Amino acid sequence: MMNKSVSMGIQFFLRIGQSIQTPAQNTVNFVRTFHATLFISLASAGVLFSPALQAETNTISNVAGDEIIIFSDDSFKPAIRDLGSKPEASKDLQSQKSTRGGRLADSFEINIKDNKTNAGSETNTANSDQSNPQHDDLWQRIKNGYAMPESTSALTTKHEEWYSSRPDYVQRMVERSQRYLFHIVEEVEKRGMPTEIALLPMIESAYNPKAYSKSSASGIWQFIPSTGKHFGLKQNWWVDNRRNITMATDAALTYLQKLHAMFGAWDLALAAYNAGEGTVGRAIERNRKLGLPTDYESLNLSDETKNYVPKLQAVKNLMTDPGNYGLKIPTIANTPYFAKVSAPARIDTHLVAKLAEINHEEFLALNPSYDRPLINSDNGNLELLLPIMAAQTFRTNLANYEKPLVNWQTYQAKRGESMDKIANKFGMNLAQLRDVNDLSAQAKMKKSTTILVPKADGNDDAPLTVIEEPAVEKETAPQEQTITHKVKKGEVMQSIAKYYGVSVKQILAANALRNGKLKTGQILNINVSSAKEAADAKKSANKSKPLDKSKSVEKKQTYIVKRGDTLHSIADKFDVAVVDLKRWNKKSSAHIKPGAKLIIQ
Hints:
9% strand, 601 residues, single chain, mainly alpha
């Protein structure tokens, strides 16, 4: 098995070879023949299809401390292709320690520069300078397309300081962006838009496709549900296309073009993208009636929207001259990172990754719109994104794969059915069952519903029932009402969630909280499913105050500990907090023995 640097070097070598374009057809044919020969040689040597590198684990913070929640661990970080070194620095490359390029990358770099070819895609725009060797670096291409007026806001300095004081955060953001940035630049240039737009996801989501805001915005472009639906981004139990990289990018650019046509300036269009066209339109009209200027910096907007354009300007400044801020921004190859492949309408996501010979985290990073371990598309022409080096591998392996493509089935869970029994019946742990089906921390099913479970042994050929949209939460989302709840002494997140009929996860998301720790007097936003329920819940909360433990009537029951039980699993079973279990039973540790009796209040 080859080592990591050689493996990455070969990927580097092939990616660059694919990007070379010359006007002469015989040169193109030569390159294609060269690729085929190299492919066969590497395959026969047993080095082309080596196992994926082990993923690294990183903790991702949000953009500005409290603006977005990151639910994914963002553990996979593919290597960045370093193509931007200047010719005179090529001698120094031999002495540099690199785990990303390898010797193949170093030896091939001079050929690229001598040919002075543009390493862009086959659809390069006319305004690209194809004679400029620096176009091997995508950042230079972005810089050459700047077209927005510079923001003069004093707020820009604040955001420059925020980003530059967090070099690790910036590095992770850039590493994530390299998967998507080339595609976005291509689409921006096709529409004749300023290339600064390609930096916008950095301030929206830090280029994390799993970013989720307190206003329920999702994806790298942070579409809220209603705007996403307006632009045709499908959202149901199976898929959320607000996180689809290509679809959401197309929708975001279309929306930004519409806003620019409405307001006539890019800073106003960006403000409207952040706050809504109605908000910006009303602010402009107020200033007009008062005889005041109607430019972006003169409008009375929220603090978040006032900071929006300066934040983009700060990111632009950092990416343009990172050395001025003590940062090192690795170059990104000006070549496609991913390719589209056709796939069966129903297939396990882990199987797709296996057939493409990539790890599952990388598949999800390119296809983050799929919420389930099973893709169950109602569209026969399913398209997935895969790393460009893995696309043909997937096609070949899929054509030769003769086993079932699906290892999941649907199960009709009955109202009152124990969650533990369902999980045990299908060989799952309780946490996995809840995660796969978005079920709250309940002991029993609240109502009859169809859920996803693994296929039973010997049942590989069982047909899969098509679940249209069993998740009522997303269907009723437009009718949701938000009420406020003031935390009282002794209250815990689980009891509040249970009282209002929502999950702890929903409360965390609605309030941009990372954990369930509460403080007395803290105000929580609670999203309930209808106006009537909101009114009833508010009225009940104000009158009876059932969550005040000093006044509530407590009912006790006894639970006998079974083999394999833990305090956490028991707390989940009864929808209570571990700390309360300890308090009720006067326990200082989490140790319990089978047969022991626990009091549940």
